[in-house]
Amino acid sequence: MEYGFKGERLSLRKAIEFIASVVYPNDDKTDARKRVRERIRYWENKRQVVSGRNVKADDFFRWAADQWPELLEVNGLPRSAKTEWVVGSVDAVMSIESVVIPVSVPGSRKDLVDAYVASETERQLLDSEVKKLKAKLEKCEKKLRELIQRNEEIRLKKSEAGKKGKGIKRLSSN
Questions:
Q1: Model pTM greater than 0.90?
Q2: At 4, is the secondary structure helix, strand, or coil?
Q3: What is the 8-class DSSP label of residue 2?
Q4: Sign of the four-CA dihedral 52, 53, 54, 57
Q5: What is the mean pLDDT of residues 59-63?
């Protein structure tokens, strides 16, 4: 089968129809589209893929080929390099940035040991930073709980005062 779409972006509806026709060629078209759509929604909810109305074809089909290996047999199917999905939200509009992380393996033992020491040092620094950030987060969460509790106490106090007639006096509009 041939990939027949042009352009960098593709509507999600067309992508679903295309995947359904490749993966479930003998099934009812409606059922096949539903199965594909449900799997995409499932992975959207797990934050493994972000779609929207239009998708970047090469990134989307990289993810889709991992889900449905049958897509690998399609001639001309655009697929990017293995990507890590970074999901962001700007005013309720989902965006995708794909990040390719190259890895090079040193040739000699000395270079390999040096690279290991450097990466281990970086890991330890990052672990330390994570611990600091977790401690800061715990302090913030504690402060938030205190503020919520204080707010609730004030709300209850004001409610009681209002029930006793000690609240804000309102002028009658007669």
A1: no
A2: coil
A3: B
A4: positive
A5: 82
- Measure the CA–CA gap between 63 and 57, rounded to whole angstroms: 10
Residue 102 banded pLDDT, cuts 50, 70, 90: low
User: Residue 37 has which token pair?
Assistant: 């759509």
Beta strands in the chain (DSSP E): 9-11, 54-56, 84-90, 93-99
Q: End-to-end distance of the chain based on CA atoms, in angstroms?
A: 81
Residue 65: Cβ-neighbour burial (10 angstroms; 0-12, 13-18, 19+): middle
Taking the mean position of all CA atoms in its chain, how far away is CA 55? 15
Residue partners of 49: CB distance under 8 A and separation at least 6: 40, 43, 60, 63, 85
Q: What is the pLDDT of residues 5-24, one digit of tens each?
A: 787 888 888 888 999 999 99
Provide the pLDDT for residue 55: 81
Q: Compute the residue count for the chain.
A: 174
Encoded tokens for 57: 């074809």
Distance CA 75, CA 73 (A): 6
For residue 75, the 8-state DSSP code is B
67 and 19 Cβ atoms separated by less than 8 Å: no
